[in-house]
Every structure is written in structure tokens, then in C-alpha cells.
Design goal:
By secondary structure, the chain is an alpha+beta fold. Among the domains are: 162-301, Alpha Horseshoe (Serine Threonine Protein Phosphatase 5, Tetratricopeptide repeat); 419-521, no CATH class; 536-661, Heat Shock Protein 90 (2-Layer Sandwich), CATH 3.30.565. It has helices at 13-18, 26-39, 43-57, 62-75, 80-94, 99-112, 119-138, 142-160, 163-179, 183-199, 204-220, 224-238, 246-260, 264-281, 284-300, 304-314, 318-322, 324-340, 344-399, 401-494, 501-528, 531-536, 538-549, 569-588, 627-639; strands at residues 555-561, 594-602, 605-612, 643-649, 653-661. It has a 5-stranded mixed sheet, with helices on one face. A hairpin with a 3-residue loop joins strand 4 (643-649) and strand 5. It starts with 12 loop residues before the first helix and ends with a strand. The relative contact order is 0.04.
């Protein structure tokens, strides 16, 4: 690999970095911003669109750039923050013509933005420092740019949460390390930049710039296969854009790849493509970079006249001659070219110029070291001043010791009084809390007693109700039932006496009515107090109840699961009454033809589920046909500390789920 090839990478990097990121699809980008300038919802958004257009045209058409800048300023007149933003974009525009003023404006922008602790301001501060660093680079202050990126740009970009600008910052660090031949560090920062740009989903143009830098770094570090793969990938990304500015970087990177690989004719072919496109796009600083690469390729194929012609052309370009590192390369190139042409006097002359400039650059390094020593000296002097101040402070401390002692005593007394006051306050507050807690506990106790009394009253009422039902059932069955049975027997005896046919029919009719009355009386007595509940238990009583209520029109299916365990008699009666009321509601009010009744038990919890296909009812209605019956059910469920859930759909049926505590 030719030894002097890596040096030319330093060429024009400042101009490349300060030119800003160019969108890959320029037409779409410009149309989008133009639309925003007309249709954005607020003047602030319109102003920002104009500022971005101004930045885009700054290095292409300064008149257009100035026009958009002025439009943005007009839209920003009512916003102090946007006025500062306008200063940033104005500084960007005037860099080529008023560099010193631009430098000052960037510092002013950064200072003014300190009053705005928000993400947009953090990002703009990072960009202002970045552009300020580029100007320092143009002044040969390379270390200043590096320090700014590390200590200003990256921390501010992190505070702004901008992965895109973090990627840009790490990319410039990668280029700096690449230019001083620290390729491992350059690769690390390139990959870091690519990672941040991908995370932000940045534009393809920003990623391509990072890919270019990585490809050149692979080439310079002897990893040509990796460089070739990356170059092919870049070429594929740029295929839809045959006149993209990024193709100039591609041709430069490919030219470097071929030159380092001793494929000088291929290198010249790539470089010529780049030069032709740069002339068409009117981007002189990238053309000059390609021309310097053309010099090296021409030199190594021994076309020394062409190599000299390229150098002479470049030496007429002010941007090229502005940086000392660029002048060094041009002087060195002229020296070796004239030597190869056999013009030793001219070769010596150019070598002498190169040597003087090289010494000057070395002097600047020495100056930097002297400045570092001066800073170290100042630090020593400062340390002496600090030590002197320490002595004075010790003397002052001794003089003030007595005063502090008195103050300490006074403070101790005050602290003691304060502690006493605090304890008194805490004691008073705790007493109030205790009294409040006692009062609350007393009220809770009263509420519990009241609830217990209510439960006792409810239990007494239910028991009294059941006792009255038993008495009425016995009276109806034994008293009125016996009388009706006796009347029936007497009337049946009258049928045996001779009677007319008409009289016999009337007697039979009366006897039939008595039979119906006796049956209804027994049914009422049974409902009031089913004897089989007391004699045979809950399961049998519920089964008999279902069979009694079942008709040819209404089918009732009863399922009992593990309900034979002993249950207090009063609880059995309440369960029976609940089921009785549920079945009655389903038959009378819901007009159901199918009813499923399930009863089960798990430890001390008794479950009742009833499903019917009746007409259902509106649970939200204040008045329903089954209102009284449901209220009775709820009362008994509440008495047994249970809960009830009802789901009812009009014309579809009703499902009732009940849980009761039976122990």
C-alpha cells in the first residue's frame, strides 16, 4: 500500500463536516418543507421549515438561503426563543463570508439558550457548539474540536434525547481518529454512530455518511474485504439516486479502496466519475477532495505531468490552501512530482517550503505544550494562594472559637427548650389521637351492638312468623279441615236417601266443591308448615315441594348434592321458604315451563341455583311483578349472612345464584 495515501484524508474534512447532512431524496425533502411553510398549523412551525430550507441552500445558493432566513425571521418576531434560533441559522449562512462574526454568533446563541431548559434548546446548543468547533478546526485548532465534541456536543445531545445528533457527534470523532491513523478507535466510534442513527431511524443519507467513513477506515486499516462489502451495500442504497451528492463520497471511498489495493486505473475511473458529477452538481469542495485523490493515483501510474497539473489547479483554490495540513500535502506532492520529473531545483524549492511549514506546524504543537505548562504553573500558584488562605482561615477559626463556644451553649439551651416543646406537642397530639381512637372504638362497639340487636329482632320476627304459620296450619288442618270432612260425610249420606235426579246432581256438585276446598286447605296448610320438612329433612321437603308444584305445563328438575348433613331447624325453614318463594315467582310471574333447581353444600356454605325459561324481568325497574317475593328472599338471605346474584333477560329467562352460611 502506498505510504502517503492515508495523509490525504485530512483534506477538506472541515468543509465536509460543516456542510450539514444532505437528504438522500432531495426533491421529496424540499417539497415537504415547502408545504410546511404554507400549511403548517402555527407560525412557529412555518418559521422552522423556512430555517431548515435556509440551511439546505446555504452552500448551494446563498440568495435562496437568505430569502428563507428572512421569511423565518418575520414569522419569529413574536417568539423570543425563535429569535435565538434565527441567529443560529444566520450564523450557519454567513460562515463562508464572515467567519469571525459567525463564530461569535454561535457563542451568543449558546449563552442565550441557557435560559431555556428544554430538549429543543439542548439540541440547538449542541449544534451551536458543533459548528463553533468546525470553525476552530479551520483555524488549525484540531484539539479544540475534539474537546468540544466530547465535553459539549455529546452531553447536550444526551440531555436532548437526540440519538441522531449523538450519531453525528460520534461520526466526527471517528473521522478525527481515522485521520490520525488510530483505526481501532475510529471503527469503534463509526459503529457507535451507526447504532445511534439506526436507533433514531435517521435518514438514509446520515447512515450512508457513517457507512462511507467505516468503509474508508476498513481500507486504511488493511481490511479491504470488509471495505468492499460495505461499498457494495452503499452502492445498492444509492442506486435509485444517480445524481445524489452522496455518490461523490462513494466514488472517493472507492477510489481510495482501489488506490490502496494498487489498482490505480480502476481508482482513476472511479475518481473521474466523481469529478464529473461534482462539476454537474456544483460542489467544489468535494471536487477538490477527488482531485487530490486523482493526484495520488496519477503519481503512482507515473503520469507525473498530470499529477503536477492537478496540484497546480488545487493550489489556486483558497479553501484548499486555507488549512496548513492541506498545504503540507500540496507542497510535498509538488516536491516528489518535480523530483520524478528530474527537476531537482524545483523539487528542492518545494521541499524547503514543505519543511518550513512542517516546522511551523511543529511550533504550534510546541506552543500547545507551553500553554499546558503555563496552565500547570498557574495551578501551582493557585495552590499556594489556597494554602495561604487556609492559614488565614485557621487563625480566624481560633479567634472565633470562643464566640462559637458561647453560641454553642446558647444553641444547646435553645435546642433543649425546643425538644421540651416538641415532646409536649407530641404528647398532646398523641393524647388527642388516643381519645379520638377511643371514641371511634366506642362508636364501632355501639354499631356492632345495634347490628346484633337488629339481627336478634329479625330472628325473633322470623321465628314468631314460623310459629304463627305452624299454629295456623294446625288450626286449618285439624279444625276447619275436620269440619269440612264431616260436612262431606253427611252430604254423602244424604245421597243414599231417595232423591230426585236433580237433587242428587246438586248434592254431588256440593260434595265436589267440598273435596276441592279440603284439597286447597291441605295445600295451604302444607305450604304454611310442611310436616315432611320437620319429619324427613330438607332434601325430602324440597323434592316434595318440586313435585307438588309440577304440572303438565311446568316441568321442575331438582338436583341435590351433599345437603344431607345436619342443619339447624330454623335455618332449614329459611332455606325452604327461599326456595318456595323462588319457585312461586318462576311459576306465577315468569310463566316458566322449565325450571332447574340445584342445591349443594360445601362445609358451612349452602348454594342454591335456579334457572327458568320464563319471560324474565327488568332488574333496574322500581316495580316488578315479583318485587315483594324478591324482597322476602333478600331478607332471608341477609339474615343468613349470604349473598344473592340475579341475571334476568326479557323473554329469555332468569338465573338466581344464592350463597348461605348455615352454621
Amino acid at each position: 500500500m502506498p505510504k502517503c495515501i492515508p495523509v490525504f484524508l485530512i483534506l477538506l474534512m472541515a468543509m465536509m463536516w460543516c456542510s450539514g447532512q444532505v437528504p438522500l431524496n432531495e426533491r421529496f425533502y424540499l417539497d415537504s418543507l415547502a408545504t410546511k411553510t404554507q400549511r403548517a398549523a402555527t407560525d412557529s412551525l412555518k418559521a422552522m421549515a423556512n430555517f431548515e430550507l435556509s440551511q439546505f441552500w446555504a452552500y448551494k445558493d446563498s440568495l435562496k438561503s437568505e430569502k428563507y432566513l428572512e421569511q423565518g425571521k418575520r414569522l419569529s418576531r413574536n417568539s423570543p426563543y425563535l429569535k435565538i434560533v434565527a441567529q443560529y441559522y444566520e450564523a450557519y449562512l454567513i460562515v463562508p463570508t464572515q467567519q469571525d462574526r459567525s463564530e461569535k454568533m454561535y457563542r451568543d446563541v449558546e449563552t442565550q439558550l441557557l435560559l431555556y431548559p428544554k430538549k429543543d434548546a439542548f439540541l440547538l446548543r449542541a449544534k451551536a457548539w458543533y459548528e463553533y468547533g468546525i470553525i476552530q478546526f479551520k483555524k488549525d485548532n484540531y484539539d479544540v474540536l475534539t474537546e468540544i465534541v466530547f465535553n459539549k456536543c455529546i452531553p447536550l445531545a444526551q440531555k436532548a434525547g437526540s440519538n441522531a445528533f449523538l450519531g453525528t457527534s460520534y461520526l466526527i470523532l471517528a473521522n478525527i481518529f481515522k485521520n490520525v491513523a488510530q483505526y481501532e478507535k475510529a471503527e469503534t466510534y463509526c459503529l457507535k454512530a451507526i447504532g445511534y442513527l439506526k436507533k433514531e431511524k435517521a435518514s438514509s443519507g446520515e447512515l450512508i455518511s457513517a457507512y462511507h467513513a467505516l468503509a474508508e477506515n476498513y481500507t486504511l486499516s488493511g481490511q479491504n474485504p470488509k471495505a468492499r462489502v460495505l461499498l457494495d451495500e452503499i452502492r445498492q442504497l444509492l442506486a435509485p439516486y444517480p445524481e445524489s451528492e452522496y455518490l461523490l463520497d462513494y466514488y472517493a471511498a472507492e477510489g481510495l479502496y482501489f488506490t490502496v489495493g494498487d489498482q490505480f486505473k480502476n481508482a482513476l475511473a472511479s475518481i473521474e466519475k466523481g469529478i464529473t458529477l461534482s462539476e454537474k452538481l456544483k460542489i467544489p469542495y468535494k471536487e477538490q477532495r477527488l482531485l487530490l485523490q486523482k493526484f495520488y493515483a496519477s503519481y503512482y501510474i507515473k503520469d507525473f505531468e498530470q499529477a503536477k497539473s492537478v496540484l497546480q489547479y488545487l493550489m489556486k483554490k483558497p479553501p484548499m490552501m486555507k488549512l496548513s495540513v492541506n498545504r503540507l500535502q500540496l507542497y510535498h506532492g509538488m516536491a516528489i512530482t518535480h523530483k520524478s520529473l528530474g527537476k531537482m531545483v524545483l523539487a528542492y524549492d518545494w521541499l524547503e517550503r514543505y519543511s518550513k511549514l512542517s516546522d511551523s506546524v511543529a511550533q504550534s504543537k510546541l506552543k500547545t505544550e507551553v500553554n499546558a505548562l503555563e496552565l500547570k504553573y498557574k495551578d501551582t500558584e493557585k495552590q499556594k494562594e489556597i494554602n495561604k488562605l487556609k492559614v488565614n482561615n485557621i487563625q480566624a477559626a481560633l479567634a472565633a472559637r470562643n464566640n462559637r463556644l458561647i453560641n454553642w451553649l446558647l444553641g444547646s439551651v435553645s435546642l433543649f427548650l425546643l425538644i421540651v416543646a416538641a415532646f409536649s406537642f407530641l404528647y398532646y397530639r398523641n393524647n388527642r389521637k388516643l381519645l379520638a381512637q377511643k371514641e371511634l372504638s366506642y362508636r364501632q362497639h355501639l354499631n356492632e351492638l345495634e347490628q346484633q340487636q337488629q339481627l336478634q329482632y329479625s330472628q325473633a320476627m322470623l321465628e314468631g312468623e314460623e310459629q304463627e304459620r305452624r299454629r295456623l296450619a294446625r288450626d286449618l288442618h285439624d279444625g276447619l279441615g275436620g269440619m269440612l270432612a264431616g260436612a262431606k260425610i253427611n252430604l254423602s249420606g244424604q245421597l243414599e236417601n231417595p232423591r230426585s235426579e236433580n237433587q242428587r246432581e246438586n248434592l254431588q256438585k256440593v260434595i265436589g266443591q267440598l273435596d276441592s276446598s279440603v284439597t286447597e286447605l291441605r295445600r295451604i296448610a302444607h305450604n304454611m308448615m310442611p310436616e315432611n320438612l320437620l319429619n324427613f329433612g330438607l332434601k325430602t321437603a324440597l323434592k316434595d315441594l318440586c313435585e307438588t308444584l309440577m304440572t303438565t305445563r311446568t316441568k321442575i328438575e331438582f338436583q341435590a348434592l351433599e345437603i344431607d348433613a345436619p342443619i339447624p331447624e330454623q335455618t332449614q325453614i329459611n332455606i325452604y321458604r327461599i326456595v318456595q318463594e323462588m319457585l312461586a315467582n318462576a311459576i306465577r310471574h315468569a310463566d316458566a315451563t322449565k325450571i332447574l333447581l340445584q342445591c349443594s353444600r360445601n362445609n358451612d356454605v349452602f348454594f342454591i341455583t335456579q334457572e327458568d325459561n320464563g319471560k324474565g324481568f327488568d332488574l333496574g325497574s322500581a316495580h316488578t311483578e315479583a318485587g315483594t317475593g324478591l324482597q322476602n328472599i333478600r331478607n332471608r338471605v341477609g339474615f343468613l349472612k349470604g349473598k344473592i346474584e340475579i341475571e334476568s333477560t326479557i323473554n329469555e329467562g332468569t338465573v338466581i345464584n344464592i350463597e348461605l352460611h348455615v352454621d
